[in-house]
Amino acid sequence: xxxxxxxxxxxxxxxxxxxxxxxxxxxxxxxxxxxxxxxxxxxxxxxxxxxxxxxxxxxxxxxxxxxxxxxxxxxxxxxxxxxxxxxxxxxxxxxxxxxxxxxxxxxxxxxxxxxxxxxxxxxxxxxxxxxxxxxxxxxxxxx
Length: 143
Fold this sequence. Notes:
The protein contains 6 helices and no strands. The chain is an all-alpha fold.
């Protein structure tokens, strides 16, 4: 019986989590940055939201820098594209999932309509920001 009660709690907990408007992935953090998402949702989330996501972003950047520094790019020039795409895919997935998790923790009763309206703004600004950052990365890789 105890196992059955735990299963029911998990199912009920999942239903509660699925009702949050952020869902399981936060697009503004994934395509933009934690800071852009924090600025847009600043009335609902605290500093822990942005600090957690910035730390995760810094760890991803550190891993990228260590990988770039450990390879001889003159000997393996064809690895530039997969490493570049792999970094951006990992960043996109990890920050999107972590952003959704933090939003559920920091703002469990976020109004769905208000969230969607603010999230649209954050996604547009985030896409512009990401386009600029990717352009700079590509220009640096071409040098």
